[in-house]
Amino acid sequence: MMTNVMKDWQKWxxxxxxxxxxxxxxxxxxLHQQWSRAIAGLxxxxxxxxxxxxxGLYWPFRCEYDPREGILPFIETGAILAMPEVxxxxxxxxxxxxxxxxxxxxxxxxxxxxxxxxxxxxxxxIVPMVGFDMQGYRLGYGSGYYDxxxxxxxxxxxxxGVAFELQRLDTVHPQPHDIVMxxxxxEAGIFQTGQSGLELISIEQCADTNADV
Length: 213
Description:
- The chain is α/β, with parallel strands linked by helices.
- The chain has one domain: 3-Layer(aba) Sandwich (Rossmann fold), CATH 3.40.50.10420.
- The chain contains five helices and 13 strands.
- It has an eight-stranded mixed β-sheet with strand order 3-2-1-6-9-11-12-13. Strands 8-7-10 form a three-stranded mixed β-sheet, with helices on one face. A two-stranded antiparallel sheet has the order 4-5.
- A hairpin with a 2-residue loop joins strand 11 and strand 12.
């Protein structure tokens, strides 16, 4: 449920993006690695069914958590990985298959994207977040690509937002176009979106919910 309606939410979000990105880029390398390893372990242990899914991930930008570390092992069990490509300013993202050594080109915002690899329709998404709030809503970079992409799926994929705890906010002042994440994973644990917002769950609880059927 959307709360805390704010008149100047766009200005507020712009200021928060700048603040959070600056804080994220100031994380010491050793601490960044420590937190990243924690997130990778939680993804691997808490979401066993990712081993056989088509997973959309992303190329890290401006000191984001690098999801490749946590997701790469799933290739060995049959998972297909894909990276997003911007194909138009107001269009949903296109996902192209990616693997280590895949041909790459420079995409929007100078972020590398796979070059002419097969199109993939993911059934799970590891979603980058500039910030996230206590209800599971995501603060992105402001272009709306992920919101449009998620709204465009005929069958909603599993959504797992990843971030560091310093990116947590009380609220992002969600708007009608914002889509809540099903899960948020930080170095502090796995959080599932419930009726009262984000709820910390154990690795075992998450693994049971996300076991292969």
